[in-house]
Each structure stands twice: as structure tokens, then as C-alpha cells.
Amino acid sequence: MRIPPLRQYASGYPCFVASAGILNASLLWLLNAEAPVSSLFPAMVPGVLAAWFLFGTREALIRFVLPSFLVCASILFLSVEREQGMEAFLCGRACTGAQIEAELNDPSLCGGSPGWLKNAPSNISGNVRRFRYTADDTWKETSGKVFLRLPQKVKFSPGYGDTLRLTGFFRRIEVLPLPGAFDYESYARVRGIRYTFVADSAELVRKDASPMRRLYDFRGFLLDGFGKGMVHEESRAMSSALLFGMKQGIDAQTRDDFLRSGTIHVLSVSGLHVGLFFSVLILFLRFFPFTIRWFLVLIPVFVYAVSTGMQGPAFRAFVMFAVWCILRAFLLRTNALNTIAFAAVLLMLWNPAVPLDIGFQFSFLCVLFLLLSSDFISGLRLAMMTKWKYSLNGISRIRRWLIGFVSMSIVASLVAYLSSFAISMVHQGLFSPCAVPAYLLMSPFAWLCFAVFVFGVLFCWIPGVLWLCGFLMDPLLYVIKAISRLFGEDGYVYTARSPWWLALLFLILLGLLLTVKRRKWFVSCGIALMFLMFVSLMLPMFMTAELLVVSGGGTRPMLILTDPATSRAVVINLPDYESARGAASYLRTRGIMQVDELFFEASRKENCEGAESFLRMQDVRVLVVPVPPRANAVYARRALETAAEQGILYTRFSGLTDAELDEGFSRFLCGGPWKGIEVVLRNRPEGGIGIEVLKFGRLLHSGILPLSAEKRITLLSL
User: Fold this and answer.
1) DSSP 3-state percent helix, strand, coil across the chain (nearest 5)
2) What is this structure's pTM?
3) Closest CA to 202 of 269, 137, 144, 126
4) Contact assessment for residue 47 and residue 23, using Cβ atoms and an 8 Å cutoff
5) Residue 631: strand, helix, or coil
6) What single string gives the DSSP state of each residue in 197-238?
7) Tell me: the pLDDT tens digits for 393-426?
8) Which letter does DSSP use for residue 2 in this model?
9) DSSP character for 266?
10) Is 666 helix (H, G, I), strand (E, B) or coil?
11) What distances in angstroms separate CA 306 from CA 107, 212, 326, 594, 698, one per listed residue?
């Protein structure tokens, strides 16, 4: 009896069907995190009926319905944990003061070793164990994940597993409705976090001594040894990012260079790093018997993946690698497409929100399309060898290997770039046409770095080996950074973010191009057309000058004036860190990489708390602050110190009287491309802020900005 094609597909690729069932059950929850769990079951009924019709009763029940119920159980568990944990004490408040004891579980923490690396990133993930509102209250046992923002100066170096006592306040992570802004709320949601705890003081309660802490301490020992042999300070920071994904030492300029050149994945531990580590390690194990060799290699690769934090891409790479090694040891074969789907199923069952993570999307899509293109790449390689197939002399084995390796690398890099291009345009609006040559030039140096790294790990017990490895890696890392700087200076274009349906259609056409055997020219034309739609229809040259006003949250509004035609912008007020991050993302989608003027109407916290962070994210020509800053204007003084460190000019103004400031009155006269534009803000007795936009004295717009808990935007074309 002939099996229908779809049922045969369900039998051959069961993990793909299971992943479809998981997405069918969790789609409503992914789109709306506040949706009750009871509504998930009715929402999954249409998908279940479709699976039953396409795959049959048995296949649909085992491979589609069962994973659907498993992910629903996972979502239910997360919901119950949230309702009964820390958030039950916070009662949904947007901001509240508290004292907490939290256990740090961020793998980027180095615990003070090496000393040249910044100890912690800006936001540290941690688990709250105890909680109280004031020092006079009794401690309440609780649980919940938060981002911790430690004070700038602490007397100790926290590490993984340490327990800290922190005094500060909780701040709810909100969706900032800026066009093109980084979706920080989704980023936190993937990690099960809804609040940031901003600490004013911190003290160490308990230092961890678990095996995980010892592993991370050994990681610090290796980096410290490598760093002693490196001449360039930038190479030290690069080594921690390339080898272990610890990016807190990378400065903003270097991070932007890698991002704009399309090679940022080099600094995020993924399948590339696990594959490089394995390829070097297997050379040292060639003296062991075949079966033992493939089992032995699993242990150090697993330890390496754990030492990097076992993030989604690293976990996916290790699962695929482990399955392949075990089957290889027993001389068995498996379908690589089914293996990657198996890794995705495990991740989605453990964390149903992981499909929202941009790293998850990049990692799985790139590997998926590389596997789909395997026949295409093999055919291209055979076509290149046809010239010498019937030749009497032929070509040497080395030349044949070089031709095959170079052609495979170029085509594989191009396929990976095209598959990640759609995701990059949706999330970042970044077009990097030089990504393929930049990656091809970096790859040999990255492989050599890992070769030296593995040698150093294996022989670190010999005095001087780590210093020698660091000395050898220093020029390699310097070249990698130079390549990113070369292609990252001018080889990129920021555009408005693309709609998701355009990216989906582009990926479908790319998949057809790699799999269909006929009418490839038709699919190629469709891809080329959509490629032009991605880039040309959203370039900054087609954008008009705008005034963006962000209000709400009980703070003074933030104003951003942009003119993409001249690549100029003015930013007025930065109420908090989230606003600073959103403003930087919005400016980049408008094609503006430098701000003409950063202006604060007052030196209060609600005007300039996010200034220090913004100055590190975005190039600013002039900083304008009130004079004189008050003695308690902590954030204004920090902004001035950061501007002085970066060599930014700053001026002081005294155009508003104290009475006008107390009344909430502000007037901004704009110059440059906005000459004649005047923005007037004044507090209204009945609540909110009145806004008036005038051009050469003529009223263009007037309205009321509410100061509610919800942030809102007003977007005006000038």
C-alpha cells in the first residue's frame, strides 16, 4: 500500500512535525504574553484538525498533538511560577523600592579574573531569593528572575553563583513604542524576566563554590594567561568575546564595526565556535581508536559549551554535534534536518518563548538553509571539476581540495548571508552587502585562534604555554578586528525595519531556489525583486524630516528631531536607560549615525538619567546642559564626565528662569535643517503637558501629552 506523501513526510521528519505542533500551541501566547493559559487549548484546535487531516490519526496524535500539550504544560508552569513568585509581591507596580537577596546566574560574570576585563555586563541576570520593602520589614521567601543593574563602584567582584544583598528599586520593563527601537521587552521575556532592579548599594552575602563556579574561574585563569602575552588591549577583549562570548570588554565602536560589517555572530558563541573547537580537538584525538575517539570528543566539547553559558545557538550546536558523534561512533547515519528540528523542540519545550529570540532565529535559519543547500553546493562543486574530469593529466589532489573548499566556502557563506538577511532587515533594518567577503577573510584567522586556544587548554599545566598562546593570538585577533573596521566603516546601510511578511516570502523563495530542480530562473527573479524591495523602498533618502515626542511614565517628554536627507538629528531629554536605547535604535533606522546636539532642559533625573548610556551608544557632537548643575544632579554630572572622556564638546545654557522651570515651561529653538522650527512645552493645570510646534511663528501642531504610566508617541512630519 502506497503511503501518502504528507504521511511519509511525518514519518521521515517527526521532529519537524513536533516543532510545528509546538508553534501551533504557543503562537497565541507568543503574540500576547498576558493571554490566559485556558485560551491556548481552543486556539490550537484548527491546527490539530489540519494535522489530523494531513497526517492521519496516529501520526497527528503522536507527533503533533502530544508536543502541543507538552508545551502548554510548560507555559502553565511558567504562569504559575510567575503568579506565586516575586511578581505576586510587586502586584504589577511599574516602580517600587525594595531590598532583595539575589543569586547571580549570569555566565558573563568573571568574578574579577582576568583583572583587565570588565567584571559584569550592564544588565546581570539573577534569581531573587528573599524580598522586603524596607529594612524594618521581615524577609519574605520568594523566587523570580530579574535583570540587576549594580552600582558603578562596588568593593568586590561578583561572580557566578554569588548571593548579593541589594538595596534599590524595581522597574518594570515596558514596551517602548519608538519606531525601530530595540525590543527590550521581548529580549527580557525570552529570559523569563519582567523587571530590572536598579541597585543603589550592594554587599556580598555568600561566595559560591559550586562546580560551575570553578569552571568559570578556570575560564578566567585561561583568559588571564592569554592576556599576559597580548600586546594590544583590544586583543584581550576580543579573545574573551571570540572564545567565550563575554562581550562586556568590547567597546561600542568595535561592536558597531562587527554589526555593520555583518560579522557580529563571530562575537556570539554559536555553531561556528563549537565547530571550530571540535575540528581542532579531533586532530589531537586521532591517535585513539575510532569509536573511543568520537565518544571522548563529546566531553570537552560539552564542557566548552557550558563554559560559554550554553545559550541557544551553543545548545543547538552541541545537540546536533552529540547526535552526529554518537551515530558516527556506531557507523550509523541520521537526517541532519531532523536533528536540527530535534534541538529546536528541546529548546521550545524548556522555554516556550525562545522563538522570539533573534539569536534562535538566526542560528536555526542559517543551519536549516545550509542543510537545504547541500545538494546545490555538491552539484556546483562537481560542475567546477568537469573541466578536468576527462583530462589525461588531471589536477593534483591539493589543487582539487582547494578548488572544492574555496567554492564550498563562498557558496555556503552566501547562503548563510541570504538566510540571515531577512531576519536582520526585520529586527535591525541593517543591510551589510560586504558581509560575505568580510566573513571569508576572518574565518582562517578565527580557526587559527581556536587552534592556539585548544593547544593552550591542553597544555596549560606547562609554565609559559598560556603566555605563548596569547602572544600568537594577539596578531590574529588584531587582524580580525581590522577586517571588521575595514568593512564596517562604509559598507552598510540602515533602513526602516521590513515587515515580517516580506521576510517570510523571501525565505520561502530562497528555500525553493535551493530545492527545486526546474525553473530556477523564475525563483531567482523573484528573490532579486524582493531583495530590491527590502533595500530600495526603505532607504533614508526617501524619509522625511520628523519630530518624535515620547511622553508618559510621569517624566518629562523626550523629543527627537531627525532629517535623514542630511543625516542630522537633535535629541532633547533622555528620561531613562530604555529611552536611550530606543532613541539610538530609532536614529539608526533613519540612517543617522551622529547626533548634532544632545539637549537637557533641566539637570533633574527625569531629564538626563539615560544620558550616560546614550553617549556610549551614539556619536554626539555637542552636549548642552543647564547651568549651574545642582549639587544633587548626579546623572547630569555623570553625563558631563562621560562627554569629557570621549572628547565631546559641551556647552551650558541659562535661557530659562527658575520660575519657568518650576512651571514646567520649555522652549526649544532649532537650527540647521530645522531653522525656524520652535517647540514649546508647558505643564497644564488639569494634568499632562501641552505641546506646540511652530514654524516661523505659524502653528503647525498643538496637543496634550498625557503623563500616564503608559508611554505614548507623537510623530510629526516637518
Assistant:
1) 55, 15, 30
2) 0.81
3) 126
4) no
5) coil
6) EEEEEEEEEE---SHHHHHHHHHHHHHHHHHHT-S-HHHHHH
7) 556 666 666 766 777 778 788 888 888 888 887 8
8) P
9) G
10) strand
11) 9, 9, 19, 39, 63
